[in-house]
Design a protein that fits this description.
Elements: H1 4-17, H2 19-31, H3 36-72, H4 76-126, H5 130-133, H6 140-179, E1 182-185, E2 188-191, H7 193-213, H8 216-239, H9 247-302, H10 308-325, H11 327-330, H12 332-373
Antiparallel strand pairs: 1-2
Helix pairs in contact: 3-4, 3-6, 3-10, 4-6, 6-10, 6-12, 7-9, 7-10, 8-9, 8-12, 9-10
Length: about 375
């Protein structure tokens, strides 16, 4: 187990090294390994599938315009043709989604297997004194068994989401700028006003969500540590030779385990309170986006400047742009957990590197002393 002072020292060293730099090194390990061909092929496949998802969303956005115009014009032939088009797009989207889910799972599974074996070798084989690593980081076994699993899957999943989001933001920004028209605000003509409204709406949402949920990173980090401490005390009691010891001793062990449980539950309660506030905001934010876009677009419909299909296309494009600009808001809990997991994995990697360097220095000093003595 590791005390608070050691944890603070490790955190300080970690901050000096830079999170992005350390994460980049951690990510590069697999792409430079003997499985790099699969890694790059899987990456290209996921990028392609993400871009196809954006293309499907753009097709549906254009479909809204023609579909609702057909209803307004009572054009039965166009209506049924567009229904068939919709079914075709849906079938394609479902197939793409299923394939993406499969590829994400296989990619994360292979990456986890390789990274686990890499750190097992570094900890058990290459490290001169594996026990000394535990003095610098708590629960190395959890880092390997649990943190690597979370890190690999979350990295692949969140990266796909981020790529889709960035491509969608660019695509739907172009669409919304083209179809939103102009508006006058206090006598000033504002071009592509729907686009700027979406940017302001999403920026405000991201700011508020950051204010509400910024504690989730530290709470998730502490949750993983407190759960690991609880497991440690349970395993320690199970593996004790004197498990059949006096009742008073076992009562003391039980009290220690209960204390660790209370610490973990108290942290979970704080996490729940933050998540409830964040969930309340994201739900309100998501529901209001449709109303907000309608209030901005409908006046142009009432004036005869656009058709009903244009209104629905604008609402769809506005909703897609806001949703993708708000990806950070919706993914904030997952990002916070990923950040906490990555912090723990990086600190484990640094502890292994430090121990190896320390042992190498010790061997060098010993060798020099032997040479001087001889």
């Amino acid at each position: 187990m590791m005390n608070t002072d050691t944890e603070s020292i490790n955190a300080s060293k970690f901050n000096k090294s830079g999170f992005l730099r350390s994460t980049s090194f951690l990510l590069s390990l697999y792409w430079k390994s003997e499985e790099k061909i699969f890694a790059w092929c899987a990456l290209i496949g996921l990028v392609t599938l993400s871009l196809l998802g954006v293309a499907s969303a753009l097709v549906l956005n254009e479909w809204y315009k023609h579909f609702y115009n057909a209803i307004q014009e009572m054009n039965a032939r166009s209506f049924y043709m567009l229904v068939l088009v919709f079914l075709g797009v849906v079938c394609f989207s479902v197939a793409r989604s299923v394939l993406t889910t499969y590829l994400v799972g296989i990619f994360a599974l292979k990456w986890r297997r390789w990274l686990t074996n890499h750190y097992l070798s570094a900890w058990i084989i290459r490290s001169p004194q594996p026990r000394q690593v535990e003095r610098r980081v708590d629960n190395p076994d959890q880092r390997i068994a649990e943190d690597i699993n979370k890190f690999t899957y979350s990295t692949v999943y969140l990266s796909c989401g981020l790529l889709y989001t960035l491509a969608s933001v660019v695509s739907f920004s172009v669409v919304l700028i083209a179809i939103s028209g102009n508006a006058s605000l206090w006598g000033v003509k504002v071009p592509a006003y729907m686009f700027w409204a979406a940017i302001i709406y999403a920026a405000l949402g991201m700011y508020i969500s950051q204010k509400i949920g910024f504690k989730l990173v530290s709470l998730n980090n502490y949750h993983q540590k407190s759960e690991a401490d609880l497991r440690y005390f349970l395993v320690r009691f199970r593996d004790r030779n004197n498990i059949e010891s006096a009742k008073t001793v076992r009562s003391l062990e039980k009290n220690n385990i209960s204390e660790k449980l209370d610490i973990s539950l108290a942290n979970m309660r704080r996490t729940i309170r933050v998540k409830v506030r964040l969930s309340l905001f994201t739900e309100i934010y998501g529901q209001l986006s449709l109303l907000f876009s309608s209030l901005l677009a409908v006046p142009r419909f009432f004036s005869g400047s656009i058709t009903f299909g244009d209104v629905m296309q604008i609402n769809s494009a506005f909703g897609n742009l806001c949703e993708n600009l708000s990806w950070f808001i919706n993914a904030y809990p997952s990002l916070a957990e990923w950040k906490a997991t990555t912090d723990r994995l990086i600190s484990f990697d640094k502890a292994l590197a430090y121990q190896t360097e320390l042992s190498a220095c010790h061997e060098l000093v010993t060798s020099c002393m032997i040479k001087e003595a001889s």
